[in-house]
Amino acid sequence: MYEYLFGKIVKKKVDSVILDINNIGYRIYISLNTYEKISNEKVKLYIYSHIREDAYVLYGFYSETERNFFEKLVNISGVGPKLAIAILSTFTVKDLKTIILNNDINLLKKVPGLGPKKAQKLIFEIQDKIDYKFNLEENFETKDSIHIENLKDDIYLAMESLGYNKKDIDKFIDSEKINNYNSIEEAIKDILKTIQSKKR
Questions:
Q1: What are the E-state strand segments in the chain?
Q2: What are the two backbone dihedrals, phi and then psi, of residue 152, each rounded to the nearest 5 degrees?
Q3: Are 109 and 116 in contact, with CB atoms under 8 Å apart?
Q4: Per residue in 113-133, pLDDT tens?
Q5: According to the UniProt record, where is the region Domain III (predicted)?
Q6: What letter would DSSP give residue 134?
Q7: What is the mean pLDDT of the chain?
Q8: What is the phi-psi region of residue 134: left when phi exceeds 0, alpha when psi lies from -120 to 50, beta otherwise?
Q9: Long-range contacts from 191-196, C-beta under 8 angstroms, 24+ separation
């Protein structure tokens, strides 16, 4: 199993590259997000190896974060590598986290080959398996290592990264509950659930 491969791109297509490593050409399938980030020169791709009875297929990703999310997707029943690549070609990892937190089936089903029932099943099965830190400037820590008075500021940062403005955020932050959150992730999930319930 490969962790990553580093080599020169000798052929680049929207869905794959040929990577030359010591005069051996490796065909590696990629997402559209990875395609847009790599140049036509040397590149390091994080690898997922898919072993079948009739083939040994390599999938490559520009970032370790994208590769790790791909692994979570293919571990869901009914989601194979091709569908996982389609999902990561339609949305970034950050966008997918937002979609999953919002339980936004209508947006997720825009992925080719992903109908509403499968989209709902995917969200249900993956929602407790992903890290909701959103890759902001710094990772948020648990309540044990941050002061309560700073938690509200952290919530603003996270919510603003999801497209909400301060005025909207104030409507949904329960000042009495804020001291009971154990982590920023718990706070954001609860606030987003509140927002969704009020939209219905």
A1: 4-12, 16-21, 24-30, 42-51, 56-61
A2: -65, -40
A3: yes
A4: 899 999 999 999 998 887 655
A5: 146-200
A6: T
A7: 81
A8: left
A9: 191/155, 191/159, 192/101, 192/102, 192/162, 196/102, 196/103
Angle at 65 between CA 60 and CA 69, to 5 degrees: 80
CATH topology for the 64-126 domain: DNA polymerase; domain 1 (1.10.150)
Q: Does domain 4-61 correspond to CATH entry 2.40.50.140?
A: yes
- Does position 200 have pLDDT exceeding 60, yes or no? no
The tokens describing 106, both together, are 């209508």
User: Tens digits of per-residue pLDDT, 5-56?
Assistant: 999 999 998 899 999 999 999 999 999 989 988 877 889 999 999 987 778 9
Q: Where are the domains of the chain?
A: 4-61, 64-126, 143-199
Angle between helices 116-126 and 93-101 in degrees, nearest 10:
90
Residue 72 identity (one-letter amino acid): K
The count of other CB atoms within 10 Å of the CB of residue 110 is 11
